[in-house]
Sequence to fold (509 residues):
Amino acid sequence: MKTSPPSFFGELYKRRNVLMQLVSQQLILRYRRTALGYLWTLINPLLMMSVMAVVFATLFKADLKTFTVFLFTGMIPWNFFSSVVSQSGSSLINNEGLIKKIYLPKVIFPLSVVLALLIDSVLSFLALFLIILAIGGSLSWAALFIPVAYLLLFFFALGIGLITSVAMVFFRDLQHVILIAMQGLFFLTPIFYKNEALAGKIGWLVGLNPVVPFIELFRAPLYSASLPKSSVIIQALLLSLAAISIGLLVFRRHEKKIVFRL
Amino acid sequence: MSSIRVKDLSIKFRIYHDRSPSLKDYFANLFKRQRQIAYSDFWAVKDVSFEVKAGDRLGIVGHNGAGKSTLLKALCRVYESSEGEISVDGRIAPLLEIGAGFHPEFTGRENIYLNGAILGYTKQQLSVIEPEVIAFAEVEEFIDTPVKYYSTGMYMRLAFSLATAMHPDILILDEIFAGGDSSFMKKAKARMYELINKSDIMVFVSHDTNLVSSLCNRVIWIDHGKLVADGAPDEVLARYLAGRLND
Fold:
């Protein structure tokens, strides 16, 4: 009657209770003891987006309605991606106290960060829908593609987050490198400008940027009111499969060494 | 029936002599032909083998830094073995550091659920034991206050009563008899003894040899990561105390 240790995913499922507790911990803590509480997660992006939409639409002399949609269908997925990479990066280091004292499947820490960010991001998207309706825009059926876009982006970001979380335990310098890299990547991602705008000398760099197809997944359904091109969907699908497989591979290979290096 | 089997267990730590290796060093060293070794290996536990059967009350003694706590953490799966293997049958309760995972901003009640989940309790179990945990810790008035406002005693009492609320098959203890005022200590001790009596196996690390001889029916002595003696409490403890005097 020997019990073999449960598998990676089996163990994660067994401890899903901890995962949910950690996710809600992150969601609740931020707005703890504020009068509006969790509503801030909705109000915050709503206000931010309204201000930015008005400022940039005036600055670029663009039509407020179309520019708002254009900007935020790029901005929201980008923000999700970049916070996943930086925050899941420090997730293991921040939980050092726990990891050294009690056994938990380590993947819980980055995963809980990513799930909490996903919930925030989805709420931001709801805020965007509200803004679109408020300024008299319309939503097409293509908007139903957004959940699929989130699914693809989630696995892509999680895969990269798993890698950064392990890498940061071994190389603490990475937290600074990542900050700068994300800043650079932000400008190489068509968020404020259209995909074609950065042609010329460094246009090929945008072509190499793996985040670009994911932005397109979110932008096409709302901005062009059509489904993304199938080539873009396939590209995103392959990228997210590659990211999650490599992420899991790296994580499982190193997870047992983590505790010795924290 | 619960059991623990430890076979040729070794746990290696790497001690870095300079600082933690940076990314720069890593790349710099990649291209160097002769890599400088800036660390040395330290075996916290070396070739330790023993078996624990149901009914055993195992005490572990040894001087500071002998590897006792490392061994316990390996039993709880915090540390992965570098060599050898450990197999554990039965629900194991790691009472290594009570209160690990408490979040200061959360209320006592929220921490019961958070910490309880970390300890491996299900939500249903937690809602059943919640009133008893609160009553035992005597924190009814403050249960909905963030624990950062708790006194040290209150914090310890809540952590203790939560950690000891369920009866595990295998109990792993690292000097747990501490905290609280004398009346709580008395209560806590009684609860601890009950927990020990109901468990299949207890593994207990302590420097208090009197306590070890009263609680355990078998003692192992670990020195510099190696198992030096394994046997009846009186015999091993006598050798341990004598050996310590000669140091």
Remarks:
- Chain A has one domain: 8-261.
- The mean pLDDT of chain A is 87.
- Residues 8-261 of chain A form one domain.
- Chain A has twelve helices and no strands.
